[in-house]
Amino acid sequence: MNDDRTTPAPDSPFRPEPGDRDAAPQFVLPLVVRIERGSPPARTDALETAARAVLVMLTDERSVGEGEWARAMRDWQDARIRKVVRRARGAEWRRAEALPGITVTGKSAEVRVFPPVPLDGWPKDLARLQVSGTDLDDPDPVPPADPGVPTLWMNPELEMSAGKAMAQAGHGAQLAWWELSGAAREAWRAAGFPLAVRTAGPADWPALAGSGLPTVRDAGFTEIAPGSCTVVADHPALR
Question: Region Disordered: which residues (predicted)?
Answer without folding.
Answer: 1-24
